């Protein structure tokens, strides 16, 4: 049988979904349990979950499974929980060790949107890029600000990232030059996967938004700060961010995260009615970033000013339709403390302060060969629900 260590990210309370393959190379749906993967595709084929049509298991992504709706997917979850709890030995034939499998992108992402929802992050970047006296834009406390990202370059944990090239214009020069970015950065974010669609022309009420969240992942929104700084006015991020976005392979079901809901920061001035939420909508999710073996940030998703429900309500308020498999980035997750900053741009104060790594070297931004790893977990009353990790190593820029 499988082992679930007390400190495992993948406890019986979690049961996240992913896409894996082993020797046969067929992509199958798996559920992480302890150090193992439960092969859901084969279990469905054998009729263990009779409400799940086998065709949904064969597409190499979670999209068709998610489309079945939460009444079915939550049924799978509760049935598997009771089979595990009863130590049913019929489970054994569906268990594979995690170390023996390859993980793939869990969903086919149609559209990817990235928000900008941490007050601390928006303030820090506003000070560095614009006006230290008026760091937050006048719209920021009224609108969950976001931009449309690029889905083609979303990659899974373990994928190498080639240093991007582009136009760079240092303030001391009058015109730009072309070259590899000299300011490659990570952004500590979470992402959520849309699990239910709204029709174009209709909007999702904020109080129903939860039904549209299938689950969450860790997300690193790689950013080339020099390219970004020159290109972003007035339409926002483009080539400075669309070269790669990394996500973790296991999608944590929203249901597994409900025990960790907490109240978010007070929103003042009051938000418009379509954004008003009641109750606990933030999640106490502890987050950590490492560059190679050095911890450079300890943050928490609960610091976010705007929550996922408000992001969904805002995204659809104009009649924009969300589709199953769409990915929403939280925005960089920074806290008040110096140790809780979600990007090197903030940690190095715009490249002015050197960050010491354990090997005696220093960074302002990322160097070729560096590996950035994000991890995260929720823990309360002896229950642990972890996210695993998302990491990526920087490769040198391509020679032209
Ligand atoms: O303030 C800016 O001009 C830019 C900010 C970012 O780079 C952040 C962005 O991608 C959104 C976020 O992650 O919060
Ligand atoms: Ca971002
Ligand atoms: Mg990106």
TrEMBL record:
Pathway as given in its UniProt record: Amino-acid degradation; L-phenylalanine degradation; acetoacetate and fumarate from L-phenylalanine: step 6/6
Heme found in the keyword field: no
Domain spans labelled Fumarylacetoacetase N-terminal: 13-106
Binding site for Ca(2+): 114, 187, 189, 221
Cofactor entry: Ca(2+); Mg(2+)
Residues bound to substrate: 116, 130, 228, 232, 332
Active site: 121
Domain of life of the organism encoding this protein: Bacteria
GO annotation terms (biological process): homogentisate catabolic process; L-phenylalanine catabolic process; L-tyrosine catabolic process
Keywords linked to the UniProt accession: Calcium, Hydrolase, Magnesium, Metal-binding, Phenylalanine catabolism, Tyrosine catabolism
InterPro entries the UniProt entry points to: Fumarylacetoacetase, Fumarylacetoacetase-like_C, Fumarylacetoacetase_C_sf, Fumarylacetoacetase_N, Fumarylacetoacetase_N_sf
Family, similarity comment: Belongs to the FAH family.
Protein name: fumarylacetoacetase
Gene name as annotated: hmgB
């Amino acid at each position: 049988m499988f082992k679930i260590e007390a400190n495992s990210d993948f406890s019986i309370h979690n049961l996240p979904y992913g896409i894996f393959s082993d020797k046969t190379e067929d992509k199958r749906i798996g559920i992480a349990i302890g150090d193992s993967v439960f092969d859901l595709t084969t279990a469905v084929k054998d009729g263990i979950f009779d409400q799940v049509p086998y065709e949904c298991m064969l597409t190499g992504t979670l999209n068709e499974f998610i489309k079945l709706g939460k009444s079915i997917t939550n049924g799978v979850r509760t049935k598997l929980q009771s089979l595990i709890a009863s130590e049913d030995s019929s489970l054994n034939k569906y268990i594979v060790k995690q170390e023996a499998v390859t993980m793939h992108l869990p969903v086919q992402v149609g559209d990817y949107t990235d928000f900008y929802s941490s007050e601390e992050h928006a303030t820090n970047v506003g000070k560095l890029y614009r006006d230290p006296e008026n760091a937050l834009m006048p719209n920021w406390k009224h609108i969950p600000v976001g931009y449309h990202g690029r889905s083609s370059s979303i990659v899974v944990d373990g994928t190498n990232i080639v240093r991007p090239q582009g136009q760079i214009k240092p303030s001391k020069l009058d015109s730009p030059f072309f070259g590899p970015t000299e300011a490659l950065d990570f952004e500590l974010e979470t992402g959520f996967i849309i699990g239910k669609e709204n029709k174009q022309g209709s909007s999702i009420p904020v109080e129903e938004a939860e039904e549209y969240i299938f689950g969450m992942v860790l997300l690193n929104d790689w950013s080339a700060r020099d390219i970004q700084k020159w290109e972003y006015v007035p339409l926002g991020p483009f080539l400075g961010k669309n070269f790669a976005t990394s996500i973790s392979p296991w999608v944590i079901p929203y249901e597994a995260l409900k025990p960790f809901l907490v109240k978010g920061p007070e929103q003042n001035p009051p938000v418009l009615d379509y954004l008003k939420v009641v109750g606990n909508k933030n999640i106490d999710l502890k987050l950590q970033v490492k560059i190679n073996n050095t911890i450079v940030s300890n943050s928490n998703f609960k610091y976010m000013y705007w929550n996922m429900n408000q992001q969904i309500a805002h995204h659809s308020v104009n009649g924009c339709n969300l589709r199953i498999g769409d990915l929403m980035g939280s925005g960089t997750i920074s806290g008040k403390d110096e140790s809780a900053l979600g990007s090197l741009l903030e940690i190095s104060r715009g490249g002015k302060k050197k960050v010491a790594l354990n090997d005696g070297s220093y960074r302002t931004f990322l160097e070729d060969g560096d590996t950035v790893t994000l991890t995260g977990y929720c823990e309360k009353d002896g229950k642990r629900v972890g996210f695993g990790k998302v990491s990526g190593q920087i490769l040198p820029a391509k020679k032209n």
